[in-house]
Amino acid sequence: MAILQPIHNIAEIFSKKDVKTVILCPGSRSAALTLSMVRHPDIETFSISDERSAGFIGLGMAQLTNKTVSLICTSGTAVYNFAPAVAESFFQEIPLLILTADRPAEWIHQYDGQTIYQREIFGKHVKKSFELPADYSNEDCIWQIERVINEAINLSQTNPKGPVHINIPIREPFYPNENETITFDSNVRIIENCLMDKKLPNQFWNNFKEIWQDAENKLIIVGNRQSSELNETLAKFSDELNIPIVADIISNVNSVDSILADVILASKNEKFRNKLKPDLLITCGKSIISKNLKLFIRNNKPKYHFHIQENGDLIDPFQTLTHKVEVSPEYFFKQLFEDLDFLKFKEGDEDDENIYFELWNQSNLKVKHILHEFLSNSNFCEFKVVRNVLDKLPENSIFHVANSMVVRYSNLIGLGKGKNIEVFANRGTSGIDGSLSSAVGCAIKTDKAVTCLIGDMSFFYDRNAFWNTYLPDNLRVILLNNNGGNIFRIIDGPNKQPEVGEYFETKQNHSAEFFCQENNVKYLKVKDEVNLELSLNLLQEKSTRPIVIEIELDGLQNVEIFNEYKKLFANFS
Q1: Among 119, 279, 348, 490, who pairs with 215 as Cys (CB 3.0-4.6 Å)?
Q2: Does residue 382 contact residue 405 with C-beta atoms inside 8 Å?
Q3: Which residues form a coiled coil (predicted)?
Q4: What span, in angstroms and rounded, lies between the C-alpha atoms of 23 and 468?
Q5: What is the pLDDT of residues 95-117, one digit of tens each?
């Protein structure tokens, strides 16, 4: 048996357990891992030089497919560069498996090259960390390696999904001899993880239905990334039971007419806001973009708040939780609807007027009309550009929205009902550091058109997303360039400080034009609304190269128009 055979067999375990996408970052100590993954016939590999970008490209792939993607790198600071993507995947519950090559323990902190403390390096930002033995000849060690790889893969796919780290000490020699062939043991040990769906007892449902019947104002709020199955069920709550569904754009609840709660709740009219207070609140999903919504619920606490999540942690961003229900949202809402529908059938099929539902609905229709008129009559600005981009997104496509102001603008506007568009965003940690790389990873893994809407600070911070040979021609990047972090002139606090320009907004004068030339990316520059409309038509067309549309905007004018928007809705009722 070859000395590194147990390491080569990791690729065989990957194949048998459906981990078939691997991101490889070049390095010497990880050579055995790299060669075995590349030479395995069932594994698709990508070589990405920048570990930070590589981590987010892998995350974008796993985000789309919901399957475990593996990241592999050499020892030393290369490992730390995975950290932002690992943290994002942890809080967004995306399955990543991180394999880091390391020196054996006796050589740590002995002034040897590329050596840092790698054991449990990601701390609490992984579901679990493992360390493989450095001895590959002992039968017990081989058993341990195979057991750990199985456990790590299973754990990454167990709800809540997330990142798992395996640190792998490897001794020299790293490379096979010149005529040595890497083989894979087809009898490698495979351990399946048999999962059971959690169900709620009848007593829970009896108690819950009493609460439901007694509650006059019922509200459902949906957070980040929901399934198509849940989407269809929630549509029945809205259409047949007249329950308002409030969902951010990143929730992917697009089978109901999106309620622009972020705009409605910008109102300072307390009498109006009090009418929107729920008695029973049901929430599911992860993060919520809208600060207005979070503050509204915190200040208008419902009597009952049920949060539906499979994650064992107690998470309460609204500070109102009364019941944590640890089952899948798909099961919970499907069962609840069936029970309520049967109850409605037994009691007669007459629809009761739902004043609370109508208040949300009518308010939504009003704000949509006012917002449309406001943006239509506004000068050329970010807010208006985002509205036009959302209108032009092709059917059956993917929308990747970056953080900072672009995701806020998108959430204020919404996608509307029935648009078959999947929305992705890095809202686990909400950083600007990997949005472009995540979009690239997503586009590599799909034939659908992928549109990435991104600001200039996020774009240039993550420019190494284009430093690879896999750029897909289905990627369209809409770059809003206002020459700085314009959000700091919009949010309260930094906008009132004399240092805002240099130390918060951090003005820059970069353009993406030459950067696109270097990377063989089609580039267009837009400075006005007429050229914007012409350029956005490219979102509907196929191309032989990725496209970047850079839109030059006046940062101060963006602030003025956004402040006008806030004044417009301050007294809404």
Answers
A1: 279
A2: yes
A3: none
A4: 12
A5: 999 999 999 989 899 988 889 99
Question: Mean pLDDT of all residues in the chain?
Answer: 94
Tell me 324's DSSP state. E
Q: Is 266 left (phi over 0), alpha (psi -120 to 50) or beta?
A: alpha
What are the structural domains of the chain?
5-169 (3.40.50.970), 202-361 (3.40.50.1220), 378-569 (3.40.50.970)
138: helix, strand or coil = coil
Write b or e for each residue in 61-76: b if 16 or more Cβ atoms lie within 10 A of its Cβ, otherwise e.
bbbbbebbbbbbbbbb
Confidence of residue 352 (pLDDT cuts 50, 70, 90): low
Q: Which residues pair with 99 in a beta bridge?
A: 72, 166
Token digits of residue 436: 């472009």
Contact 127, 156 (CB under 8 A): yes
**How many CA atoms within 13 Å lie on the side-chain side of 498?**
0
For 15-73, how does the pLDDT look when each residue is reduced to its tens digit (9 = 90+)? 999 999 999 999 999 999 999 999 999 999 999 999 999 999 999 999 999 999 999 99
Cis peptide before 84, with omega less than 30 degrees from 0?
Answer: no
User: Length of the chain in residues, anyone?
Assistant: 573
Distance CA 10, CA 82 (A): 21
Smallest Cα–Cα separation from 361: which of 267, 258, 277, 290?
Answer: 258
Kindly state the tokens that stand for 524: 């267009």
C-alpha distance across the termini of the chain, in Å: 76
How many whole angstroms separate alpha carbon 366 and alpha carbon 198? 42
* DSSP bridge partners of 323: 306
DSSP 425-486: --TTT--SSSHHHHHHHHHHT-SS-EEEEEEHHHHHHTGGGGSSS---TTEEEEEEE-SS-G
Angle formed by the axes of helices 329-347 and 202-214, nearest 10°: 60
Query: Residue 501, SS3?
Result: helix
CA distances from 244 to 240, 276, 363, 572 (A): 11, 11, 12, 19
Please, are residues 87 and 116 in contact by the beta-carbon 8 Å criterion?
A: no
| Under 8 Å between Cβ of 59 and 96 | yes
